[in-house]
Specification:
Helix content: 40-55%
CATH class of the largest domain: Mainly Alpha
Number of domains: 2
CATH superfamily of the largest domain: Dehydroquinate synthase-like - alpha domain
Strand content: 5-15%
Length: 384
């Protein structure tokens, strides 16, 4: 087991009606900056619940956060928040809005109009404003982790930001807010959470049976309840997927294990250049990453086949290959492509994607840092 430090101070309020708890979770004297996306929270009742809970408080609003939050949009929000003297950032929406709220809390704290270099090169040097999350679309686990993924239109980059002090102080997780989401949003959310587990689970074997057991359970829950969620939006399906997505990336299953994330870095480049849904970039790349890295990943892929997919194949390589096929079948069942060509006839410029990775400093990917630009080119060719 790799040495690790694990602390997750985010207080979670889970269940129907929990949005009302905001009143007791934000200091009474706080000046609140409410951040949200395209306005869906006004259609599904979340906005009214939030404002009712904050009745009598000073609240400034900013909407228009993109599905892949733009740094330039957050610059506008940051200027307004600094002008208003905001002391607490509240993100209400899916993972993108919550990512944006955490990043915005750090931007405001710098007092600068363009703190890109400060936040991306030395993120832990910044002490962000406190922030909270009202989750409406489970997928990223952003509501209780320290990571944001932000796109800069001007720089043509999509990159991760991480600061432990940016973890939300609280996360409101009301599964009933999911029932108004589109089928595509639900499909994407399930697949996104599924890949988060695999990025931490399918690496090289280490002595972490607890983490592996948790990972396998989360995967089984998503496999069982993801399709039910898409088809029925039942209360049970909403609850199980929302909680599973949180557990997939709150830091617990990744404690003490090597982690991959090469699929995510390649996927970020595809989204930055072509605007493809994040989850769909992952599904179209991940199977090819597994096939390309079969020699090193075979032991864990074989375990995954036997523990999660219940394979009785004794040969590790054959079991690993079965696991990849079953993963593709699940992603396809969730409506996501497993090849680049399946995404609306998308044609990618391989060199443009490699250039994006190089600009972002992502040239040594994977749990062993051995996936270099030349390997990415081969993976993209396999994924075509």
């Amino acid at each position: 087991m790799i040495n690790f430090t694990y602390c997750n101070p985010t207080e979670i309020k889970f269940g129907k009606g929990q949005i009302a708890a905001i009143a007791e979770l934000i200091p009474e004297n706080a000046r609140i900056f409410l951040l949200y996306g395209g306005g869906s929270i006004k259609k599904n009742g979340v906005y009214n619940q939030v404002m009712d809970a904050l009745s009598g408080r000073v609240v400034d609003e900013f909407n228009g956060v993109e599905a892949n939050p733009h740094y330039e949009t957050l610059q506008v929000a940051s200027r307004l928040a600094m002008l208003k003297g905001s002391t607490f950032v509240l993100g209400a929406g899916g993972g993108s809005v919550i990512d944006a709220a955490k990043f915005l809390a750090a931007m405001i704290a710098t007092g600068k109009d363009d703190p890109w270099d400060d936040l991306l090169k030395h993120p832990e040097d910044v002490r962000p404003l406190p922030n909270g999350a009202v989750l409406t679309l489970p997928a990223t686990g952003s509501e209780s982790n320290p990571v944001s993924v932000i796109s800069s239109v001007r720089r043509q980059l999509k990159v991760p930001f991480s600061n432990q002090a940016a973890r939300p102080k609280f996360a409101i997780m009301d599964p009933t807010t999911m029932q108004s989401l589109s089928r595509r949003q639900l499909e994407n959310g399930v697949v996104d959470a599924f890949t988060h587990v695999l990025e931490q689970y399918l690496t090289r074997p280490v002595n972490t049976p607890v983490q592996y057991g948790f990972s396998e359970t989360v995967l089984e829950v998503l496999i069982e309840w993801g399709p039910k969620l898409v088809e029925t939006r039942s209360e049970e399906a909403c609850e199980n997927v929302m909680w599973a997505a949180n557990q997939a990336l709150n830091g617990l299953i990744g404690a003490g294990v090597p982690q991959d994330w090469s699929t995510h870095m390649i996927g970020h480049a595809i989204t930055a250049i072509y605007g493809v849904d994040h989850a769909r970039t992952l599904s179209m790349i991940m199977p090819s990453v597994f096939r390309y890295c079969l020699n090193t990943k075979a032991p864990m892929l074989a375990r995954y086949a036997r523990r999660v997919w219940k394979s009785d194949q004794l040969d590790d390589v054959k079991a690993a290959e079965q696991a990849i096929v079953r993963t593709e079948e699940f992603m396809a069942h969730m409506g996501c492509p497993v090849r680049i060509s399946q995404q609306d006839a998308l044609e990618v410029d391989v060199e443009a994607l490699v250039s994006h990775l190089e600009k972002a400093g992502h040239t040594e990917l994977g749990e062993n840092q051995d996936i270099r630009p030349e390997d990415v080119r081969k993976i993209l060719s396999m994924a075509a």
